[in-house]
Amino acid sequence: MNAIPTLHNYINGQWCASTATEYLEIINPATIEILAKVPFSTASEVHQAADAAAEAFVTWRRTPASERVQYLFKLKNLLEEHFEDLAQTITLECGKTLAESKGEMRRAIENVEVACGIPMMMQGTNLEDVAKGIDEMMIRQPLGVAAVICPFNFPGMIPFWFLPYAIACGNTYIVKPSEKVPLTMQKIFQLLEKTGLPKGVINLINGAKEAVDAILDHPKIRAISFVGSTPIAKYIYSRGAANGKRLQCQGGAKNPIIVLPDADIAMTTRIAADSAFGCAGQRCLAASIAVTVGEARHTFTEAIAETARNRIVGNGLDQGVEMGPVIDVRSKTRIETLIEKGANEGAKLLVDGRNPQITGYKNGNFIRPTILENVDPVGEIARTEIFGPVLSLIHLNSIDEAIALVNSGQYGNMACLFTTNGAAARKFRYEAEAGNIGINIGVAAPMAFFPFSGWKESFFGDLHGQSNHAVEFFTQTKVVVERWRDEWARQF
Ligand code: NAD
After folding, report:
1. 391 lines ligand 1 (CB under 6 A)
2. What's the per-residue H, E or C state across the chain?
3. What Enzyme Commission number(s) does the record list for this chain (predicted)?
Protein backbone atom coordinates (compact mmCIF):
# COMPACT_ATOMS: atom_id res chain seq x y z
CA MET A 1 0.00 0.00 0.00
CA ASN A 2 1.27 3.49 -0.88
CA ALA A 3 1.95 5.85 2.02
CA ILE A 4 -0.45 8.81 2.16
CA PRO A 5 1.43 11.93 1.08
CA THR A 6 1.57 14.91 3.43
CA LEU A 7 1.27 18.29 1.76
CA HIS A 8 3.89 20.97 2.24
CA ASN A 9 3.82 24.74 2.34
CA TYR A 10 5.81 26.85 -0.10
CA ILE A 11 7.54 29.72 1.66
CA ASN A 12 10.30 31.96 0.31
CA GLY A 13 10.97 29.71 -2.67
CA GLN A 14 11.23 26.52 -0.61
CA TRP A 15 8.89 23.58 -0.02
CA CYS A 16 8.66 23.26 3.76
CA ALA A 17 7.16 20.55 5.95
CA SER A 18 4.67 22.18 8.28
CA THR A 19 5.23 22.35 12.00
CA ALA A 20 1.50 21.74 12.50
CA THR A 21 0.31 19.17 14.99
CA GLU A 22 -3.12 18.80 13.38
CA TYR A 23 -3.82 17.39 9.94
CA LEU A 24 -6.90 16.74 7.81
CA GLU A 25 -7.31 13.80 5.46
CA ILE A 26 -8.19 14.75 1.89
CA ILE A 27 -10.81 12.32 0.69
CA ASN A 28 -11.99 11.66 -2.86
CA PRO A 29 -15.73 12.36 -2.51
CA ALA A 30 -16.71 9.73 -5.09
CA THR A 31 -14.61 6.79 -3.91
CA ILE A 32 -13.87 7.82 -0.28
CA GLU A 33 -10.21 6.98 -0.92
CA ILE A 34 -7.75 9.03 1.17
CA LEU A 35 -5.63 11.10 -1.20
CA ALA A 36 -3.35 13.07 1.13
CA LYS A 37 -3.02 14.75 4.50
CA VAL A 38 -3.03 18.52 4.76
CA PRO A 39 -1.47 20.38 7.71
CA PHE A 40 -3.34 23.00 9.70
CA SER A 41 -0.38 25.38 9.53
CA THR A 42 0.39 27.57 12.50
CA ALA A 43 0.44 31.34 12.86
CA SER A 44 4.24 31.30 12.91
CA GLU A 45 4.29 29.75 9.41
CA VAL A 46 2.04 32.56 8.17
CA HIS A 47 4.46 35.05 9.77
CA GLN A 48 7.37 33.44 7.91
CA ALA A 49 5.49 33.69 4.62
CA ALA A 50 4.47 37.31 5.25
CA ASP A 51 8.03 38.30 6.19
CA ALA A 52 9.47 36.55 3.12
CA ALA A 53 6.86 38.22 0.90
CA ALA A 54 7.60 41.63 2.43
CA GLU A 55 11.31 41.18 1.75
CA ALA A 56 10.71 40.03 -1.81
CA PHE A 57 8.48 43.04 -2.43
CA VAL A 58 11.43 45.44 -2.24
CA THR A 59 12.94 44.06 -5.44
CA TRP A 60 9.78 42.79 -7.11
CA ARG A 61 8.10 46.19 -7.21
CA ARG A 62 11.22 47.58 -8.93
CA THR A 63 11.05 44.89 -11.63
CA PRO A 64 9.46 46.46 -14.72
CA ALA A 65 5.86 45.40 -15.32
CA SER A 66 6.82 44.15 -18.78
CA GLU A 67 9.35 41.83 -17.12
CA ARG A 68 6.94 40.74 -14.38
CA VAL A 69 4.40 39.52 -16.91
CA GLN A 70 7.00 37.32 -18.60
CA TYR A 71 6.53 34.93 -15.67
CA LEU A 72 2.81 34.88 -16.41
CA PHE A 73 3.43 34.02 -20.07
CA LYS A 74 5.54 31.08 -18.83
CA LEU A 75 2.81 30.13 -16.37
CA LYS A 76 0.18 30.18 -19.10
CA ASN A 77 2.26 27.73 -21.16
CA LEU A 78 2.87 25.46 -18.16
CA LEU A 79 -0.84 25.45 -17.27
CA GLU A 80 -1.68 24.48 -20.86
CA GLU A 81 0.95 21.73 -20.80
CA HIS A 82 -0.40 20.30 -17.52
CA PHE A 83 -4.05 21.05 -18.27
CA GLU A 84 -5.30 17.43 -18.23
CA ASP A 85 -3.46 16.55 -15.02
CA LEU A 86 -4.75 19.66 -13.23
CA ALA A 87 -8.32 18.96 -14.35
CA GLN A 88 -8.03 15.35 -13.10
CA THR A 89 -6.72 16.56 -9.76
CA ILE A 90 -9.68 18.92 -9.35
CA THR A 91 -12.08 16.07 -10.06
CA LEU A 92 -10.25 13.72 -7.69
CA GLU A 93 -10.40 16.05 -4.70
CA CYS A 94 -13.54 18.03 -5.47
CA GLY A 95 -15.80 15.51 -7.23
CA LYS A 96 -17.02 17.56 -10.19
CA THR A 97 -16.98 16.05 -13.68
CA LEU A 98 -13.83 16.19 -15.76
CA ALA A 99 -15.55 18.54 -18.24
CA GLU A 100 -16.40 20.89 -15.35
CA SER A 101 -12.83 20.74 -14.07
CA LYS A 102 -11.53 21.59 -17.54
CA GLY A 103 -13.94 24.53 -17.73
CA GLU A 104 -12.62 25.71 -14.39
CA MET A 105 -8.98 25.52 -15.47
CA ARG A 106 -9.81 27.28 -18.74
CA ARG A 107 -11.15 30.27 -16.78
CA ALA A 108 -8.07 30.21 -14.54
CA ILE A 109 -5.83 30.43 -17.61
CA GLU A 110 -7.98 33.19 -19.07
CA ASN A 111 -7.24 35.29 -15.96
CA VAL A 112 -3.50 34.76 -16.49
CA GLU A 113 -3.92 35.92 -20.08
CA VAL A 114 -5.78 39.07 -19.04
CA ALA A 115 -3.19 39.88 -16.36
CA CYS A 116 -0.47 39.69 -19.03
CA GLY A 117 -1.89 43.05 -20.15
CA ILE A 118 -0.92 44.75 -16.87
CA PRO A 119 1.68 47.03 -18.51
CA MET A 120 -1.32 48.65 -20.21
CA MET A 121 -3.92 48.14 -17.47
CA MET A 122 -1.77 49.55 -14.68
CA GLN A 123 -1.07 52.84 -16.38
CA GLY A 124 -2.10 56.03 -14.65
CA THR A 125 -3.29 59.34 -16.09
CA ASN A 126 -1.77 62.78 -16.41
CA LEU A 127 -2.60 66.27 -17.50
CA GLU A 128 -0.15 69.00 -18.42
CA ASP A 129 -0.75 72.58 -17.34
CA VAL A 130 -3.32 72.06 -14.60
CA ALA A 131 -2.10 75.58 -13.87
CA LYS A 132 0.51 77.41 -15.95
CA GLY A 133 3.70 75.33 -15.90
CA ILE A 134 2.22 72.78 -13.48
CA ASP A 135 1.56 69.17 -14.43
CA GLU A 136 -0.40 66.62 -12.45
CA MET A 137 -0.31 62.86 -12.75
CA MET A 138 -1.86 59.84 -11.12
CA ILE A 139 0.36 56.80 -10.87
CA ARG A 140 -0.51 53.34 -9.60
CA GLN A 141 1.84 51.61 -7.21
CA PRO A 142 1.57 48.12 -5.73
CA LEU A 143 0.46 47.71 -2.11
CA GLY A 144 3.02 45.25 -0.79
CA VAL A 145 2.02 41.82 0.50
CA ALA A 146 -1.48 40.54 -0.31
CA ALA A 147 -3.24 37.24 0.38
CA VAL A 148 -6.21 35.16 -0.74
CA ILE A 149 -8.34 32.77 1.34
CA CYS A 150 -10.21 30.29 -0.87
CA PRO A 151 -13.33 28.05 -0.71
CA PHE A 152 -13.53 24.38 -1.69
CA ASN A 153 -15.66 24.51 -4.81
CA PHE A 154 -13.20 25.87 -7.41
CA PRO A 155 -9.71 24.90 -6.22
CA GLY A 156 -8.11 25.72 -9.58
CA MET A 157 -9.97 28.83 -10.70
CA ILE A 158 -10.68 31.01 -7.69
CA PRO A 159 -7.07 31.83 -6.70
CA PHE A 160 -6.62 33.03 -10.29
CA TRP A 161 -9.29 35.72 -9.90
CA PHE A 162 -6.58 37.46 -7.85
CA LEU A 163 -3.05 36.02 -7.96
CA PRO A 164 -2.03 36.90 -11.55
CA TYR A 165 -3.19 40.52 -11.13
CA ALA A 166 -1.59 40.85 -7.70
CA ILE A 167 1.87 39.79 -8.79
CA ALA A 168 1.76 41.44 -12.21
CA CYS A 169 0.99 44.73 -10.42
CA GLY A 170 4.16 44.25 -8.36
CA ASN A 171 2.75 42.84 -5.12
CA THR A 172 3.96 39.69 -3.45
CA TYR A 173 1.44 37.04 -2.51
CA ILE A 174 0.20 34.35 -0.14
CA VAL A 175 -2.40 31.74 -1.11
CA LYS A 176 -4.39 29.86 1.55
CA PRO A 177 -6.39 27.16 -0.30
CA SER A 178 -9.43 25.48 1.21
CA GLU A 179 -8.22 22.76 3.55
CA LYS A 180 -10.75 20.44 1.87
CA VAL A 181 -9.14 20.66 -1.61
CA PRO A 182 -5.47 21.64 -1.30
CA LEU A 183 -4.02 19.28 -3.94
CA THR A 184 -4.72 21.41 -7.00
CA MET A 185 -2.86 24.44 -5.59
CA GLN A 186 0.00 22.18 -4.54
CA LYS A 187 0.39 21.19 -8.21
CA ILE A 188 -0.10 24.74 -9.46
CA PHE A 189 2.63 25.97 -7.11
CA GLN A 190 4.98 23.36 -8.57
CA LEU A 191 4.33 25.04 -11.93
CA LEU A 192 4.69 28.53 -10.45
CA GLU A 193 8.05 27.42 -9.11
CA LYS A 194 9.08 26.31 -12.62
CA THR A 195 8.43 29.82 -13.97
CA GLY A 196 11.49 30.97 -11.98
CA LEU A 197 9.61 33.67 -10.05
CA PRO A 198 12.00 35.19 -7.50
CA LYS A 199 11.79 33.65 -4.03
CA GLY A 200 9.18 35.13 -1.74
CA VAL A 201 6.99 36.53 -4.54
CA ILE A 202 4.45 33.72 -4.15
CA ASN A 203 3.86 31.66 -1.03
CA LEU A 204 1.49 28.81 -0.23
CA ILE A 205 0.14 28.22 3.28
CA ASN A 206 -2.10 25.23 3.88
CA GLY A 207 -4.40 25.37 6.85
CA ALA A 208 -7.64 26.57 8.34
CA LYS A 209 -8.74 28.99 11.05
CA GLU A 210 -5.39 29.56 12.77
CA ALA A 211 -3.70 30.38 9.45
CA VAL A 212 -6.58 32.63 8.38
CA ASP A 213 -6.56 34.55 11.65
CA ALA A 214 -2.80 35.03 11.38
CA ILE A 215 -3.28 36.46 7.86
CA LEU A 216 -5.99 38.80 9.16
CA ASP A 217 -3.77 40.09 11.94
CA HIS A 218 -0.36 40.29 10.27
CA PRO A 219 0.72 43.94 9.99
CA LYS A 220 2.70 43.39 6.78
CA ILE A 221 -0.27 41.97 4.85
CA ARG A 222 -1.96 44.96 3.24
CA ALA A 223 -4.83 43.42 1.28
CA ILE A 224 -6.94 40.28 1.52
CA SER A 225 -9.28 38.65 -0.98
CA PHE A 226 -11.73 36.12 0.40
CA VAL A 227 -14.19 33.79 -1.29
CA GLY A 228 -16.45 31.54 0.79
CA SER A 229 -19.63 31.50 2.82
CA THR A 230 -21.33 34.72 3.95
CA PRO A 231 -20.81 34.31 7.73
CA ILE A 232 -17.06 33.83 7.22
CA ALA A 233 -16.95 36.64 4.62
CA LYS A 234 -18.45 38.99 7.23
CA TYR A 235 -15.95 37.81 9.81
CA ILE A 236 -12.98 38.33 7.47
CA TYR A 237 -14.29 41.72 6.40
CA SER A 238 -14.76 43.03 9.93
CA ARG A 239 -11.57 41.62 11.48
CA GLY A 240 -9.45 42.60 8.48
CA ALA A 241 -10.93 46.12 8.40
CA ALA A 242 -10.31 46.53 12.13
CA ASN A 243 -6.66 45.84 11.28
CA GLY A 244 -6.67 48.48 8.54
CA LYS A 245 -6.52 46.13 5.55
CA ARG A 246 -7.99 46.52 2.11
CA LEU A 247 -10.58 43.77 1.61
CA GLN A 248 -12.79 42.16 -0.99
CA CYS A 249 -14.94 39.34 0.38
CA GLN A 250 -17.19 37.26 -1.86
CA GLY A 251 -19.85 35.41 0.08
CA GLY A 252 -22.65 32.90 -0.42
CA ALA A 253 -25.70 33.06 -2.66
CA LYS A 254 -29.24 31.93 -3.33
CA ASN A 255 -29.72 32.51 -7.03
CA PRO A 256 -33.16 32.82 -8.60
CA ILE A 257 -34.10 32.32 -12.22
CA ILE A 258 -37.42 33.47 -13.68
CA VAL A 259 -39.13 31.60 -16.51
CA LEU A 260 -41.73 33.63 -18.41
CA PRO A 261 -44.44 31.80 -20.38
CA ASP A 262 -42.95 32.88 -23.74
CA ALA A 263 -39.51 31.36 -22.99
CA ASP A 264 -38.05 28.68 -25.26
CA ILE A 265 -38.79 25.87 -22.82
CA ALA A 266 -36.43 23.24 -24.25
CA MET A 267 -33.47 25.63 -24.13
CA THR A 268 -34.48 27.06 -20.75
CA THR A 269 -34.74 23.60 -19.24
CA ARG A 270 -31.34 22.54 -20.48
CA ILE A 271 -29.71 25.72 -19.19
CA ALA A 272 -31.59 25.70 -15.87
CA ALA A 273 -30.61 22.07 -15.24
CA ASP A 274 -26.95 22.80 -15.97
CA SER A 275 -27.10 25.82 -13.70
CA ALA A 276 -28.86 24.05 -10.82
CA PHE A 277 -27.13 20.67 -11.00
CA GLY A 278 -23.73 21.51 -12.53
CA CYS A 279 -20.93 20.84 -10.01
CA ALA A 280 -23.68 19.14 -7.95
CA GLY A 281 -25.10 22.58 -7.19
CA GLN A 282 -21.92 23.60 -5.38
CA ARG A 283 -21.42 26.84 -7.25
CA CYS A 284 -22.01 30.32 -5.92
CA LEU A 285 -23.70 31.03 -9.27
CA ALA A 286 -25.90 27.91 -9.24
CA ALA A 287 -29.61 28.47 -9.86
CA SER A 288 -31.37 27.37 -6.70
CA ILE A 289 -34.85 28.87 -7.09
CA ALA A 290 -36.84 28.74 -10.34
CA VAL A 291 -39.79 31.11 -10.42
CA THR A 292 -42.31 30.33 -13.14
CA VAL A 293 -44.75 32.94 -14.34
CA GLY A 294 -48.21 31.94 -15.64
CA GLU A 295 -48.31 28.98 -18.02
CA ALA A 296 -44.61 28.21 -17.51
CA ARG A 297 -45.66 26.53 -14.25
CA HIS A 298 -46.78 23.53 -16.31
CA THR A 299 -44.39 23.48 -19.28
CA PHE A 300 -41.20 24.20 -17.37
CA THR A 301 -42.05 22.07 -14.33
CA GLU A 302 -42.66 18.93 -16.38
CA ALA A 303 -39.53 19.44 -18.47
CA ILE A 304 -37.15 20.20 -15.59
CA ALA A 305 -38.45 17.25 -13.54
CA GLU A 306 -37.76 14.89 -16.41
CA THR A 307 -34.30 16.35 -16.98
CA ALA A 308 -33.48 16.04 -13.28
CA ARG A 309 -34.57 12.39 -13.19
CA ASN A 310 -32.45 11.53 -16.23
CA ARG A 311 -29.23 13.19 -15.14
CA ILE A 312 -26.35 10.70 -15.09
CA VAL A 313 -24.72 10.80 -11.66
CA GLY A 314 -21.42 9.13 -10.80
CA ASN A 315 -17.68 9.49 -10.46
CA GLY A 316 -16.70 12.65 -12.31
CA LEU A 317 -13.78 10.82 -13.92
CA ASP A 318 -16.07 8.29 -15.63
CA GLN A 319 -17.16 8.99 -19.17
CA GLY A 320 -20.71 10.16 -19.71
CA VAL A 321 -21.20 11.26 -16.10
CA GLU A 322 -23.08 14.56 -15.90
CA MET A 323 -22.95 15.18 -12.16
CA GLY A 324 -20.52 14.12 -9.43
CA PRO A 325 -20.83 13.83 -5.64
CA VAL A 326 -20.96 16.61 -3.07
CA ILE A 327 -17.79 17.44 -1.20
CA ASP A 328 -18.14 15.46 2.03
CA VAL A 329 -20.46 13.44 4.26
CA ARG A 330 -21.22 16.48 6.40
CA SER A 331 -22.37 18.36 3.36
CA LYS A 332 -24.47 15.42 2.13
CA THR A 333 -26.20 15.10 5.49
CA ARG A 334 -26.84 18.86 5.68
CA ILE A 335 -28.37 18.90 2.18
CA GLU A 336 -30.56 15.88 2.90
CA THR A 337 -31.78 17.47 6.14
CA LEU A 338 -32.70 20.65 4.25
CA ILE A 339 -34.62 18.63 1.64
CA GLU A 340 -36.57 16.98 4.47
CA LYS A 341 -37.21 20.39 6.02
CA GLY A 342 -38.55 21.71 2.71
CA ALA A 343 -41.03 18.86 2.52
CA ASN A 344 -42.03 19.49 6.15
CA GLU A 345 -42.58 23.17 5.32
CA GLY A 346 -45.23 22.07 2.80
CA ALA A 347 -43.29 21.79 -0.47
CA LYS A 348 -43.96 18.86 -2.79
CA LEU A 349 -40.92 16.61 -3.27
CA LEU A 350 -41.30 16.39 -7.04
CA VAL A 351 -37.95 14.67 -7.59
CA ASP A 352 -36.26 13.14 -4.55
CA GLY A 353 -32.55 12.58 -5.02
CA ARG A 354 -31.69 11.35 -1.55
CA ASN A 355 -29.85 8.09 -0.97
CA PRO A 356 -29.17 7.11 -4.57
CA GLN A 357 -27.50 3.85 -5.44
CA ILE A 358 -24.54 4.66 -7.65
CA THR A 359 -23.11 1.46 -9.08
CA GLY A 360 -19.51 0.95 -8.05
CA TYR A 361 -19.49 3.89 -5.61
CA LYS A 362 -21.78 2.88 -2.79
CA ASN A 363 -19.89 4.92 -0.18
CA GLY A 364 -19.56 8.13 -2.22
CA ASN A 365 -21.19 11.39 -1.13
CA PHE A 366 -23.89 11.26 -3.77
CA ILE A 367 -27.23 13.02 -3.94
CA ARG A 368 -29.18 12.95 -7.19
CA PRO A 369 -30.85 16.13 -8.56
CA THR A 370 -33.77 17.06 -6.35
CA ILE A 371 -36.75 19.34 -7.05
CA LEU A 372 -39.06 20.80 -4.44
CA GLU A 373 -42.26 22.35 -5.82
CA ASN A 374 -44.43 25.07 -4.27
CA VAL A 375 -41.71 26.09 -1.88
CA ASP A 376 -42.81 28.70 0.64
CA PRO A 377 -41.21 31.95 -0.63
CA VAL A 378 -40.54 33.14 2.89
CA GLY A 379 -39.69 29.73 4.38
CA GLU A 380 -36.23 28.48 5.30
CA ILE A 381 -35.64 26.55 2.08
CA ALA A 382 -36.24 29.59 -0.11
CA ARG A 383 -33.82 31.63 2.01
CA THR A 384 -31.00 29.20 2.87
CA GLU A 385 -28.05 28.52 0.61
CA ILE A 386 -28.31 24.73 0.21
CA PHE A 387 -25.12 24.36 -1.88
CA GLY A 388 -26.25 21.05 -3.32
CA PRO A 389 -28.20 19.80 -6.37
CA VAL A 390 -31.57 21.05 -5.14
CA LEU A 391 -33.89 23.32 -7.15
CA SER A 392 -36.91 24.96 -5.50
CA LEU A 393 -39.88 25.83 -7.70
CA ILE A 394 -42.15 28.76 -6.92
CA HIS A 395 -45.11 29.57 -9.19
CA LEU A 396 -46.24 33.20 -9.54
CA ASN A 397 -48.57 35.12 -11.82
CA SER A 398 -46.66 38.18 -13.06
CA ILE A 399 -43.18 39.43 -13.83
CA ASP A 400 -43.59 42.12 -11.15
CA GLU A 401 -44.25 39.49 -8.48
CA ALA A 402 -41.28 37.48 -9.74
CA ILE A 403 -38.88 40.46 -9.65
CA ALA A 404 -40.17 41.41 -6.18
CA LEU A 405 -39.32 37.87 -5.04
CA VAL A 406 -35.85 38.06 -6.58
CA ASN A 407 -35.22 41.38 -4.82
CA SER A 408 -36.51 40.19 -1.46
CA GLY A 409 -33.55 37.83 -0.98
CA GLN A 410 -30.61 38.66 1.27
CA TYR A 411 -28.09 37.68 -1.40
CA GLY A 412 -27.41 39.30 -4.77
CA ASN A 413 -24.95 37.13 -6.64
CA MET A 414 -26.86 36.16 -9.76
CA ALA A 415 -30.36 36.32 -11.24
CA CYS A 416 -31.57 35.13 -14.65
CA LEU A 417 -34.59 35.66 -16.83
CA PHE A 418 -35.78 33.40 -19.62
CA THR A 419 -38.02 35.10 -22.19
CA THR A 420 -38.25 36.00 -25.87
CA ASN A 421 -39.64 39.45 -25.02
CA GLY A 422 -37.06 42.26 -25.22
CA ALA A 423 -38.99 44.71 -23.05
CA ALA A 424 -39.35 42.12 -20.27
CA ALA A 425 -35.62 41.45 -20.53
CA ARG A 426 -34.80 45.15 -20.23
CA LYS A 427 -37.12 45.58 -17.26
CA PHE A 428 -35.42 42.66 -15.51
CA ARG A 429 -31.90 43.80 -16.30
CA TYR A 430 -32.81 47.24 -14.97
CA GLU A 431 -34.63 46.21 -11.78
CA ALA A 432 -33.08 42.95 -10.59
CA GLU A 433 -30.90 43.39 -7.51
CA ALA A 434 -27.98 41.13 -8.36
CA GLY A 435 -24.47 41.78 -9.57
CA ASN A 436 -24.45 39.09 -12.28
CA ILE A 437 -27.47 38.94 -14.60
CA GLY A 438 -28.31 36.31 -17.20
CA ILE A 439 -30.85 36.76 -19.98
CA ASN A 440 -31.59 33.42 -21.63
CA ILE A 441 -28.36 32.10 -20.21
CA GLY A 442 -27.13 30.83 -16.86
CA VAL A 443 -24.25 32.96 -15.63
CA ALA A 444 -21.44 30.45 -15.10
CA ALA A 445 -18.87 33.06 -14.08
CA PRO A 446 -18.06 36.32 -15.78
CA MET A 447 -15.25 36.14 -18.33
CA ALA A 448 -11.88 37.16 -16.88
CA PHE A 449 -12.03 40.55 -18.59
CA PHE A 450 -15.15 41.50 -16.57
CA PRO A 451 -15.36 41.91 -12.79
CA PHE A 452 -17.20 39.28 -10.72
CA SER A 453 -19.85 41.60 -9.38
CA GLY A 454 -21.78 40.07 -6.45
CA TRP A 455 -24.12 42.41 -4.52
CA LYS A 456 -25.79 42.56 -1.10
CA GLU A 457 -24.78 39.71 1.26
CA SER A 458 -22.89 38.02 -1.58
CA PHE A 459 -20.13 40.60 -1.45
CA PHE A 460 -18.44 42.84 1.11
CA GLY A 461 -16.12 45.49 -0.25
CA ASP A 462 -16.19 47.67 -3.32
CA LEU A 463 -13.63 46.45 -5.86
CA HIS A 464 -14.38 42.97 -7.18
CA GLY A 465 -12.10 40.22 -8.47
CA GLN A 466 -10.80 39.93 -12.06
CA SER A 467 -10.08 42.45 -14.77
CA ASN A 468 -9.69 46.20 -14.14
CA HIS A 469 -11.25 45.88 -10.67
CA ALA A 470 -8.38 43.56 -9.72
CA VAL A 471 -5.86 46.10 -10.98
CA GLU A 472 -7.50 48.80 -8.87
CA PHE A 473 -7.64 46.51 -5.86
CA PHE A 474 -3.97 45.58 -6.06
CA THR A 475 -2.66 49.11 -6.58
CA GLN A 476 -2.80 52.34 -4.66
CA THR A 477 -3.03 55.59 -6.53
CA LYS A 478 -0.57 58.40 -5.97
CA VAL A 479 -1.19 61.86 -7.31
CA VAL A 480 1.87 63.92 -8.10
CA VAL A 481 1.79 67.59 -8.94
CA GLU A 482 4.95 69.19 -10.35
CA ARG A 483 6.08 72.72 -11.16
CA TRP A 484 8.93 73.12 -13.65
CA ARG A 485 9.62 76.69 -14.77
CA ASP A 486 10.64 77.18 -18.37
CA GLU A 487 13.44 79.59 -17.44
CA TRP A 488 15.19 76.83 -15.44
CA ALA A 489 15.81 75.03 -18.74
CA ARG A 490 17.27 78.10 -20.45
CA GLN A 491 20.78 77.53 -19.10
CA PHE A 492 21.11 74.48 -21.40
P1 NAD B 1 -16.17 28.50 3.96
O2 NAD B 1 -16.63 29.88 4.26
O3 NAD B 1 -16.51 27.41 4.89
O4 NAD B 1 -14.56 28.47 3.83
C5 NAD B 1 -13.87 29.38 3.02
C6 NAD B 1 -12.48 29.62 3.60
O7 NAD B 1 -12.60 30.19 4.90
C8 NAD B 1 -11.64 28.36 3.74
O9 NAD B 1 -10.34 28.62 3.28
C10 NAD B 1 -11.64 28.08 5.24
O11 NAD B 1 -10.43 27.52 5.69
C12 NAD B 1 -11.83 29.46 5.84
N13 NAD B 1 -12.61 29.42 7.09
C14 NAD B 1 -13.70 28.65 7.33
N15 NAD B 1 -14.16 28.89 8.58
C16 NAD B 1 -13.35 29.83 9.13
C17 NAD B 1 -13.31 30.49 10.40
N18 NAD B 1 -14.20 30.22 11.34
N19 NAD B 1 -12.34 31.41 10.62
C20 NAD B 1 -11.43 31.69 9.67
N21 NAD B 1 -11.42 31.08 8.46
C22 NAD B 1 -12.36 30.17 8.18
O23 NAD B 1 -16.69 28.18 2.47
P24 NAD B 1 -16.65 26.80 1.68
O25 NAD B 1 -17.61 25.84 2.28
O26 NAD B 1 -15.24 26.35 1.48
O27 NAD B 1 -17.19 27.27 0.25
C28 NAD B 1 -18.54 27.34 -0.07
C29 NAD B 1 -19.08 28.74 0.08
O30 NAD B 1 -18.34 29.64 -0.73
C31 NAD B 1 -20.51 28.88 -0.38
O32 NAD B 1 -21.21 29.70 0.53
C33 NAD B 1 -20.39 29.56 -1.73
O34 NAD B 1 -21.53 30.31 -2.14
C35 NAD B 1 -19.23 30.44 -1.49
N36 NAD B 1 -18.61 30.84 -2.74
C37 NAD B 1 -18.81 32.11 -3.16
C38 NAD B 1 -18.28 32.51 -4.36
C39 NAD B 1 -18.51 33.90 -4.85
O40 NAD B 1 -17.91 34.26 -5.84
N41 NAD B 1 -19.34 34.69 -4.22
C42 NAD B 1 -17.53 31.62 -5.14
C43 NAD B 1 -17.33 30.33 -4.65
C44 NAD B 1 -17.88 29.94 -3.45
Report:
1. no
2. CCCCCECCEEECCEEECCCCCCEEEEECCCCCCEEEEEECCCHHHHHHHHHHHHHHHHHHCCCCHHHHHHHHHHHHHHHHHCHHHHHHHHHHHHCCCHHHHHHHHHHHHHHHHHHCCHHHHCCCEEEEEEECCEEEEEEEEECCEEEEECCCCCCCCHHHHCHHHHHHCCCEEEEECCCCCCHHHHHHHHHHHHCCCCCCCEEECCCCHHHHHHHHHCCCEEEEEEECCHHHHHHHHHHHHHCCCEEEEECCCCEEEEECCCCCHHHHHHHHHHHHHHHHHCCCCCEEEEEEECCHHHHHHHHHHHHHHHCCECCCCCCCCCECCCCCHHHHHHHHHHHHHHHHCCCEEEECCCCCCCCCCCCCCCCCCEEEECCCCCCHHHHCCCCCCEEEEEEECCHHHHHHHHHHCCEECEEEEECCCHHHHHHHHHHCCCCEEEECCCCCCCCCCCCECCEECCEECCCCECHHHHHHHCEEEEEEEEECCHHHHCCC
3. 1.2.1.27
